[in-house]
Amino acid sequence: MLGDLDADSFCPGGAPGADVWNASALPGVTGAGAVLLASLVAALLESARKMADTTIYPRDVPRPDEEYDFVVVGAGTAGSVVAARLSEVGNWRVLLLEAGGDPTFTSEIPSLFHRTQGTEVDWGFQTEPQEKACLGMEGRRCRWPRGKALGGSSVINSLLYVRGNRRDYDRWEAMGNPGWGYEDLLGYFKKSEDIRDVELAEEEGDSPPRYSGRYHAKGGPQSLERSPTRTPIVDGLVEAVKELGYKIRDVNGESQTGFTLQHNTARGGRRWNAAKAFLAPAKNRKNLHVSKNSYVTKILIDEESRIAYGVDFHKNEEPFTVRARKEVILCSGSIKSPQILMLSGIGPVEHLAEMGIPLVKDLRVGENLQDHLQFLGPTVMFNRSNPQRLDPVKVLDDTYHFFIHGGGPLSSLDILQFQGFVSTKYANEDGHTPGSSDGTDPDYPDIQFQHVRYPFEDADGTRTMSDVSGFRREIHDAVLGAPNSEAEIYVALPFLQRPRSRGSIRLRSPDPLDDPLIDPRYLSHPHDVATLVEGIRIATRLAETRAMREGFEAQVSRTKIPGCPGDHGSDEYWACAVRHVATTTYHPAGTCKMGPPTDQEAVVDPRLKVYGVRGLRVADCSIMPRIVTGNTNAPAMMIGEKAADMIKEDWGVET
Asked: Which residues does the annotation mark as catalytic?
């Protein structure tokens, strides 16, 4: 399969030459046919060679200098932004440390994003065994993929660009974080953005959505475009949501409630990860050094002054120490950032004592862990009287189209591009909404919807989905295998947006090379189960609309998950199914919480400075006081943009 190929599979030894691809090299093919076939193969190989070209990224610095002005730890989405923006100041020297290497060839192909999981660009984390969730997974552990490469998780994610709800950020500000309200942050979202496939209007409109210049921008480093192809079932879902009364709109604009064909972090049908967007344009700056395969083990902090002055790291198994004249900025994400802080003596005093790590500062590092839990279902069968299989000839045509023209299904997120935000009956039960007199809000949805589709008897595709989720075989058979043996299927994916359950990150041991203990404590709060069950019911109503029944013969599969009591479709059954099948949406957040000095759970202040330690900041999704409504890649970019401006301001540079 294409997902298992690397660059050398397409062009072993480099780009093909004319002496390789000629008529004599193609036995049995002669004349004009040989010339045409040779030209086609050569064109495909040349396209693949260009896609596999890693010279677009900054080169690796084999031996970093001993001292820089700023040391940025982690070249994920936020870290790429921070390092690139700080290096805009010509007299500042910036070192960016990344545990991984360059993004891989496979990661370039949007439709293969699941195939990047479990590879060298994925940390491959797993949760601790869960008591009330992940019951259908091997060992009751949910798998937590995180990016390990330049660009971080923007290299392996599903490319969807979602900013979150304005109420999320207004809540952050109301919690004691000035400058983090929606109107303060909108400019940072726009600063990064290059929305390429729409014209910007003065005002937003619905059906089809018009994209307003108040909310969007062109010319930024992060390219955004919509998938160039869409299958008929997408059009059916569009009509179905309209039938239920939802609007088709720009969910990154004035209102979030409704459905959309989402913009993706892509350009020309290929993934445009954060390293391409921010680091590639900066790669020739002499004041920016990037050290790859560099695993940070500790932040160095002076015991008396409590000033962070550098980091220890390993590069290709060789130990290094580098000093920071001004600041260390930790951008390693919601799992690695708290781990590095605790290894450095910053964390809960009782836990550090247990690990035998000398205390530098007692802070609630690693707590407040939140994630969007997604339920894989209900599974909907469609086109039951005439299901369509994968067509090998069409696959070849699609492959050619992608490599030569950058379009077609390989460049598309297929049905995943169609997503939306809806409110359940529980949406206004999680506390006061800023700006609302009674705590209610008609535009603060608590469920996000996405969908994935599989052709008839697509054993490879459904098995990949089960493998990345860690499903046991009997769970795979019930959720995907049995329905897909009868028809084409799509799986609705309701995401819980405002979880009440909270988890934690803890050290497994004082050894920096050990993965941390990840315990999300999924579904420990009953409200989360009830909300997801309501999301499932909305997905079921969507499948039962006239548009889906009459247009696509849609029918919800009634294959039951083994061990779940109650009639299929009952609250009892769906609650059990949620505990078995729900898993991560890859959006961990909150483990280095931002808050005012009065917040005893806060790790960083509103300028992202670590409390009690000078010269140290955290800038990634771990600083979120509460997780946002939607995917976290766009907010990570925003956090990086704002962090870079605050750093510049604090050191006397105009922004």
From this structure: 587
